[in-house]
Amino acid sequence: MAIDFKGLVAIVTGAGGGLGRQHALALAARGAKVLVNDLGGARDGSGGSLTAADAVVAEIRAAGGEAIANGASVTDWEAVQAMVQQAVDTWGRIDIVVNNAGILRDKTFAKMDLADFRLVLDVHLMGAVHCTKAAWPHMVAQNYGRILLTTSSTGLYGNFGQSNYGAAKMALVGLMQTLALEGAKHDIRVNCLAPTAATRMTEGLMPEAVLAALQPQAVVPAMLVLVSRDAPTRTVLCAGAGNVEAAHITLTQGTWIGLDGDAPERLAEQLEQACDRTAEMVPANGSAQGAHEVGRALERLRPA
Ligand code: NAI
């Protein structure tokens, strides 16, 4: 069935270029009214101007769509609140937030300044928190919302020189896990997208031939599905070059090491078994993971 967004309002952050621009164009092409946010800064987050967002708005309008521009930095809570209000004042609602804005400040952990660590957390994590938090009460009130958080393979699996970025990106997965639970009763669905695409963010990081295969447009279908009316919730999709995979935070069955003083030595002996991936699962929530452990313990401690 065709995926359409007629009558729905979306905010896409960092939509002046790269993936965000493609996301905004695709949402608008399928009927969404789109607030195109972009600070317009450099890859490292320095500088800023509205020009990039304005150009995307012009593109959407030229194609017959509806869009407005916004130059807020997602790190600025006051400005983000005003941005959500701008969408609500213009179109009366806010249905979709695609948290896409991001920067890089790559260095090995040994050489990284804490200021660069904090800035990357601020843009990726707090930026998404701000935009989601400002839209949330509107979504609760209308019993409908779709939140997309842009994570990364670096967050999920690590990449040399990206400790700040990886920490921020994995924090977004943690944010999704709880927001998906809290949003469920208001039909607010929260998902993560880990894209791989040739943009200025990946310039110099991959060989030219590989970058050529990684059109940003190839990530868009996964975004559209994750914010659609029939979207899943609490799903992490990786997408790039026309392929889509799901990433899961799994739990092994584990091993019983007991409660006595020899437990550390027993764990050292049984570590392989604790990490054995046969029959691993995805707990429904954090409490379910704790319950799995307590259940195991009660089985073992039950008097014969
Ligand atoms: P990009 O650098 O082309 O786009 C990022 C956009 O965010 C820029 O237009 C920039 O002006 C904007 N931005 C930066 N700081 C902002 C702020 N404080 N407030 C508002 N806008 C701000 O990069 P790309 O590749 O399009 O990245 C988009 C998202 O996808 C980012 O979150 C990135 O971390 C993520 N990502 C990209 C991957 C890739 O392969 N390109 C891989 C994994 C994740």
| Count of helix runs | 10
- CATH fold description of the largest domain: Rossmann fold
Q: What is the ordering of alpha helices and beta strands?
A: EHEHEHEHEHHEHHEEHH
Ligands and ions found: 1,4-dihydronicotinamide adenine dinucleotide
Total number of domains = 2
Task: Please characterize this protein's 3D structure.
- Pfam families: adh_short.
- This protein has helices spanning 18-29, 51-62, 77-91, 114-142, 153-157, 163-183, 208-213, 220-226, 263-274, 286-301, and strands at 9-12, 33-37, 67-70, 96-99, 145-150, 188-195, 236-240, 243-247.
- The radius of gyration is 21 Å and the shape is globular.
- The protein has 304 residues and is of the alpha/beta class.
- Helices cover 44% and strands 13% of the residues.
- The chain contains ten helices and eight strands.
- The protein has an eight-stranded mixed β-sheet with strand order 3-2-1-4-5-6-7-8, with helices on both faces.
- The chain folds into two domains: 9-247, NAD(P)-binding Rossmann-like Domain (Rossmann fold); 263-301, no CATH class.
- The site of 1,4-dihydronicotinamide adenine dinucleotide has 33 residues, from helix 1 and helix 4.
Summarize the structure.
This protein is of the alpha/beta class.
Q: Which features does this protein show?
A:
alpha/beta, Rossmann fold, 8-stranded mixed sheet, 10 helices, 44% helix, globular, binds 1,4-dihydronicotinamide adenine dinucleotide, 3-hydroxyacyl-CoA dehydrogenase
